[in-house]
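Proteins fold reproducibly. Look at a sample protein:
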Amino acid sequence: MRQWRDTQRSSGAQVGLVATMGALHSGHLHLVQTAAASCSSIVISIFVNPAQFAPHEDLNEYPRTLPSDIAQLQGLALNTTLVVFAPRVSDMYPRGISTDRSQQRGAFVEMLGLSEMLEGGTRPHFFRGVATVVTKLFHVVEPHMAYFGQKDVQQCCVVKAMVDDLLFPLRVVVVPTVRDKESGLALSSRNVYLSKEEKERAPAFYRGLCRAKELFASGVVEGDKLLGVVREEAEKSGLDVEYVCLSSPDDLQNVDVVDERGAILSGAWRMGSTRLIDNILLGFEF
Protein backbone atom coordinates (compact mmCIF):
# COMPACT_ATOMS: atom_id res chain seq x y z
CA MET A 1 0.00 0.00 0.00
CA ARG A 2 2.74 2.45 0.93
CA GLN A 3 4.73 1.68 -2.20
CA TRP A 4 1.67 2.36 -4.34
CA ARG A 5 0.93 5.56 -2.39
CA ASP A 6 4.49 6.83 -2.86
CA THR A 7 4.26 6.20 -6.61
CA GLN A 8 0.96 8.06 -6.84
CA ARG A 9 2.10 11.06 -4.87
CA SER A 10 5.43 11.32 -6.73
CA SER A 11 3.49 11.39 -10.00
CA GLY A 12 1.36 14.26 -8.75
CA ALA A 13 -1.85 12.24 -8.38
CA GLN A 14 -4.57 13.57 -6.08
CA VAL A 15 -5.28 10.66 -3.70
CA GLY A 16 -8.66 10.22 -2.05
CA LEU A 17 -9.69 7.81 0.71
CA VAL A 18 -13.09 6.25 1.31
CA ALA A 19 -12.94 4.30 4.58
CA THR A 20 -15.53 1.50 4.92
CA MET A 21 -16.21 -1.69 6.81
CA GLY A 22 -17.35 -3.40 3.63
CA ALA A 23 -20.84 -4.73 2.86
CA LEU A 24 -20.91 -1.95 0.28
CA HIS A 25 -24.18 -0.39 -0.85
CA SER A 26 -25.17 2.54 -3.04
CA GLY A 27 -24.20 4.99 -0.30
CA HIS A 28 -20.61 3.78 -0.32
CA LEU A 29 -20.52 3.82 -4.11
CA HIS A 30 -21.77 7.41 -4.06
CA LEU A 31 -18.83 8.34 -1.82
CA VAL A 32 -16.45 6.81 -4.37
CA GLN A 33 -18.18 8.61 -7.23
CA THR A 34 -17.96 11.89 -5.32
CA ALA A 35 -14.26 11.31 -4.67
CA ALA A 36 -13.70 10.61 -8.37
CA ALA A 37 -14.81 14.15 -9.21
CA SER A 38 -11.73 15.55 -7.43
CA CYS A 39 -9.23 12.70 -7.15
CA SER A 40 -7.31 10.83 -9.83
CA SER A 41 -6.61 7.89 -7.51
CA ILE A 42 -8.94 6.54 -4.81
CA VAL A 43 -8.28 4.05 -2.04
CA ILE A 44 -11.33 2.21 -0.71
CA SER A 45 -10.42 0.62 2.60
CA ILE A 46 -12.47 -2.42 3.67
CA PHE A 47 -11.83 -3.36 7.26
CA VAL A 48 -14.26 -4.50 9.96
CA ASN A 49 -12.68 -2.72 12.90
CA PRO A 50 -12.90 -4.74 16.16
CA ALA A 51 -12.19 -1.63 18.26
CA GLN A 52 -15.57 -0.19 17.26
CA PHE A 53 -17.45 -3.11 18.82
CA ALA A 54 -18.19 -3.94 22.44
CA PRO A 55 -18.13 -7.60 23.59
CA HIS A 56 -21.95 -7.82 23.36
CA GLU A 57 -22.19 -6.30 19.85
CA ASP A 58 -22.36 -7.89 16.42
CA LEU A 59 -18.68 -8.11 15.39
CA ASN A 60 -18.88 -11.77 14.37
CA GLU A 61 -22.21 -11.31 12.59
CA TYR A 62 -21.27 -8.11 10.77
CA PRO A 63 -21.54 -8.86 7.03
CA ARG A 64 -18.25 -9.55 5.26
CA THR A 65 -18.75 -9.53 1.50
CA LEU A 66 -15.35 -8.72 0.00
CA PRO A 67 -15.86 -10.48 -3.38
CA SER A 68 -19.17 -8.72 -4.04
CA ASP A 69 -17.74 -5.44 -2.72
CA ILE A 70 -14.93 -5.64 -5.28
CA ALA A 71 -17.39 -6.57 -8.02
CA GLN A 72 -19.51 -3.50 -7.25
CA LEU A 73 -16.46 -1.24 -7.41
CA GLN A 74 -15.38 -2.82 -10.69
CA GLY A 75 -18.82 -1.99 -12.07
CA LEU A 76 -18.34 1.74 -11.59
CA ALA A 77 -17.59 3.54 -14.84
CA LEU A 78 -15.02 5.98 -13.49
CA ASN A 79 -12.06 7.60 -15.20
CA THR A 80 -9.87 7.18 -12.13
CA THR A 81 -7.68 4.59 -10.45
CA LEU A 82 -9.44 2.54 -7.75
CA VAL A 83 -7.47 0.50 -5.23
CA VAL A 84 -9.02 -1.70 -2.53
CA PHE A 85 -7.06 -1.84 0.73
CA ALA A 86 -8.31 -4.79 2.79
CA PRO A 87 -5.84 -5.26 5.65
CA ARG A 88 -5.87 -8.08 8.17
CA VAL A 89 -6.61 -7.39 11.82
CA SER A 90 -2.96 -8.20 12.59
CA ASP A 91 -1.88 -5.51 10.11
CA MET A 92 -3.91 -2.81 11.81
CA TYR A 93 -3.39 -4.00 15.39
CA PRO A 94 0.09 -5.60 15.64
CA ARG A 95 -0.33 -6.08 19.41
CA GLY A 96 -3.69 -7.77 18.91
CA ILE A 97 -7.09 -6.33 19.72
CA SER A 98 -9.89 -7.32 22.06
CA THR A 99 -13.42 -5.94 22.06
CA ASP A 100 -13.05 -5.75 25.85
CA ARG A 101 -11.54 -2.32 26.38
CA SER A 102 -9.96 -3.33 29.68
CA GLN A 103 -7.93 -5.95 27.80
CA GLN A 104 -6.73 -3.67 25.01
CA ARG A 105 -3.04 -2.83 24.73
CA GLY A 106 -1.17 -0.35 22.56
CA ALA A 107 -1.84 3.09 21.11
CA PHE A 108 -5.38 4.44 20.79
CA VAL A 109 -6.81 7.83 19.82
CA GLU A 110 -9.64 9.56 21.68
CA MET A 111 -11.46 12.79 20.87
CA LEU A 112 -12.46 13.95 24.33
CA GLY A 113 -15.50 16.19 24.42
CA LEU A 114 -17.00 14.81 21.23
CA SER A 115 -16.85 11.02 21.58
CA GLU A 116 -18.99 11.00 24.73
CA MET A 117 -21.95 12.78 23.17
CA LEU A 118 -24.94 11.27 21.30
CA GLU A 119 -23.86 7.77 20.20
CA GLY A 120 -21.19 7.80 22.87
CA GLY A 121 -23.87 7.69 25.54
CA THR A 122 -24.72 4.07 24.75
CA ARG A 123 -21.52 3.09 22.89
CA PRO A 124 -18.67 4.66 24.92
CA HIS A 125 -16.05 2.55 23.11
CA PHE A 126 -17.16 3.36 19.59
CA PHE A 127 -15.45 6.62 18.65
CA ARG A 128 -12.20 5.60 20.31
CA GLY A 129 -12.20 2.75 17.82
CA VAL A 130 -13.18 5.03 14.92
CA ALA A 131 -10.54 7.67 15.70
CA THR A 132 -7.85 5.02 16.12
CA VAL A 133 -8.49 3.13 12.90
CA VAL A 134 -8.98 6.29 10.83
CA THR A 135 -5.68 7.65 12.18
CA LYS A 136 -3.97 4.43 11.10
CA LEU A 137 -5.56 4.63 7.64
CA PHE A 138 -4.45 8.25 7.27
CA HIS A 139 -0.88 7.24 8.13
CA VAL A 140 -0.88 4.32 5.70
CA VAL A 141 -2.62 5.99 2.75
CA GLU A 142 -1.65 9.65 3.30
CA PRO A 143 -4.62 10.90 1.26
CA HIS A 144 -5.11 14.46 0.14
CA MET A 145 -8.86 14.13 0.76
CA ALA A 146 -11.00 11.74 2.81
CA TYR A 147 -14.71 11.19 2.20
CA PHE A 148 -17.29 10.36 4.86
CA GLY A 149 -21.08 10.07 4.71
CA GLN A 150 -23.31 12.46 6.64
CA LYS A 151 -25.44 9.55 7.88
CA ASP A 152 -22.72 8.96 10.47
CA VAL A 153 -22.76 12.63 11.42
CA GLN A 154 -21.01 12.29 14.77
CA GLN A 155 -18.24 10.32 13.08
CA CYS A 156 -17.85 13.21 10.64
CA CYS A 157 -17.55 15.70 13.52
CA VAL A 158 -15.05 13.50 15.37
CA VAL A 159 -12.87 12.94 12.30
CA LYS A 160 -12.90 16.60 11.25
CA ALA A 161 -11.88 17.69 14.75
CA MET A 162 -9.20 14.98 14.93
CA VAL A 163 -7.70 16.13 11.60
CA ASP A 164 -7.48 19.68 12.99
CA ASP A 165 -6.08 18.64 16.37
CA LEU A 166 -3.47 16.20 15.04
CA LEU A 167 -2.49 18.45 12.13
CA PHE A 168 -3.17 15.95 9.36
CA PRO A 169 -2.44 17.57 5.98
CA LEU A 170 -5.71 16.57 4.34
CA ARG A 171 -9.27 17.74 3.82
CA VAL A 172 -12.33 15.90 5.12
CA VAL A 173 -15.31 15.98 2.75
CA VAL A 174 -18.75 15.21 4.20
CA VAL A 175 -21.12 13.78 1.57
CA PRO A 176 -24.93 14.02 2.01
CA THR A 177 -26.76 10.86 3.07
CA VAL A 178 -27.94 8.52 0.32
CA ARG A 179 -31.50 7.28 0.86
CA ASP A 180 -33.90 4.72 -0.51
CA LYS A 181 -35.64 6.50 -3.37
CA GLU A 182 -39.12 5.42 -2.28
CA SER A 183 -39.07 5.33 1.52
CA GLY A 184 -36.31 7.82 2.36
CA LEU A 185 -34.64 5.31 4.71
CA ALA A 186 -30.92 6.06 4.98
CA LEU A 187 -28.87 3.34 3.32
CA SER A 188 -26.89 1.27 5.81
CA SER A 189 -25.08 -2.05 5.81
CA ARG A 190 -27.30 -3.05 8.74
CA ASN A 191 -30.49 -2.65 6.70
CA VAL A 192 -29.98 -6.24 5.50
CA TYR A 193 -31.01 -7.36 8.99
CA LEU A 194 -34.47 -5.76 8.71
CA SER A 195 -37.55 -7.83 8.04
CA LYS A 196 -40.06 -6.68 5.43
CA GLU A 197 -42.33 -5.31 8.16
CA GLU A 198 -39.43 -3.48 9.85
CA LYS A 199 -38.38 -1.92 6.54
CA GLU A 200 -41.90 -0.54 6.19
CA ARG A 201 -41.88 1.04 9.66
CA ALA A 202 -38.26 2.23 9.87
CA PRO A 203 -38.66 5.30 7.56
CA ALA A 204 -40.99 6.93 10.11
CA PHE A 205 -37.97 8.46 11.83
CA TYR A 206 -36.90 10.21 8.65
CA ARG A 207 -40.46 11.43 8.10
CA GLY A 208 -40.19 13.06 11.52
CA LEU A 209 -36.87 14.66 10.58
CA CYS A 210 -38.46 16.01 7.40
CA ARG A 211 -41.35 17.50 9.36
CA ALA A 212 -38.84 19.17 11.67
CA LYS A 213 -36.93 20.57 8.69
CA GLU A 214 -40.17 22.01 7.29
CA LEU A 215 -40.91 23.62 10.66
CA PHE A 216 -37.43 25.11 10.77
CA ALA A 217 -37.82 26.46 7.24
CA SER A 218 -41.04 28.16 8.35
CA GLY A 219 -39.20 29.95 11.16
CA VAL A 220 -39.51 27.55 14.10
CA VAL A 221 -36.21 27.41 16.01
CA GLU A 222 -37.32 26.06 19.40
CA GLY A 223 -35.81 22.67 20.16
CA ASP A 224 -38.81 21.24 21.97
CA LYS A 225 -41.02 21.77 18.91
CA LEU A 226 -38.51 20.33 16.47
CA LEU A 227 -37.80 17.31 18.66
CA GLY A 228 -41.48 16.84 19.32
CA VAL A 229 -42.47 16.19 15.70
CA VAL A 230 -39.72 13.60 15.31
CA ARG A 231 -40.87 11.73 18.40
CA GLU A 232 -44.48 12.00 17.26
CA GLU A 233 -43.78 10.33 13.90
CA ALA A 234 -41.65 7.66 15.55
CA GLU A 235 -44.40 6.86 18.06
CA LYS A 236 -46.99 6.53 15.29
CA SER A 237 -45.01 3.62 13.85
CA GLY A 238 -44.05 2.12 17.18
CA LEU A 239 -40.32 2.74 16.86
CA ASP A 240 -38.15 1.93 19.88
CA VAL A 241 -36.33 5.27 20.07
CA GLU A 242 -33.09 5.46 22.06
CA TYR A 243 -32.61 9.20 21.74
CA VAL A 244 -33.49 12.28 19.70
CA CYS A 245 -31.18 15.27 20.14
CA LEU A 246 -30.71 18.79 18.85
CA SER A 247 -26.98 19.49 19.00
CA SER A 248 -24.45 22.20 18.32
CA PRO A 249 -22.35 21.41 15.24
CA ASP A 250 -19.30 22.74 17.09
CA ASP A 251 -19.21 20.49 20.16
CA LEU A 252 -22.36 18.30 19.89
CA GLN A 253 -23.73 19.74 23.14
CA ASN A 254 -27.52 19.82 23.42
CA VAL A 255 -29.07 23.14 22.42
CA ASP A 256 -32.53 24.52 23.16
CA VAL A 257 -32.72 26.82 20.14
CA VAL A 258 -31.22 26.75 16.65
CA ASP A 259 -29.13 29.91 16.43
CA GLU A 260 -27.00 31.38 13.62
CA ARG A 261 -24.51 28.48 13.90
CA GLY A 262 -27.20 25.96 12.97
CA ALA A 263 -27.76 22.57 14.60
CA ILE A 264 -27.76 18.83 14.04
CA LEU A 265 -31.04 17.00 14.61
CA SER A 266 -30.25 13.31 15.09
CA GLY A 267 -31.36 10.14 16.76
CA ALA A 268 -31.14 6.39 17.07
CA TRP A 269 -33.78 3.70 17.27
CA ARG A 270 -34.07 -0.08 17.26
CA MET A 271 -35.96 -2.33 14.90
CA GLY A 272 -35.87 -5.64 16.72
CA SER A 273 -32.18 -6.37 17.29
CA THR A 274 -31.05 -3.87 14.63
CA ARG A 275 -29.96 -0.39 15.66
CA LEU A 276 -30.38 2.46 13.14
CA ILE A 277 -29.32 6.12 13.14
CA ASP A 278 -30.24 9.17 11.06
CA ASN A 279 -29.93 12.95 11.08
CA ILE A 280 -30.53 16.20 9.24
CA LEU A 281 -28.65 19.51 9.31
CA LEU A 282 -30.53 22.69 10.19
CA GLY A 283 -29.17 26.06 9.14
CA PHE A 284 -25.66 24.97 8.13
CA GLU A 285 -23.69 22.66 5.89
CA PHE A 286 -20.35 20.94 6.43
Notes: Residues 31 and 147 are 6 Å apart (CA to CA). The mean pLDDT is 96. The radius of gyration is 19 Å.
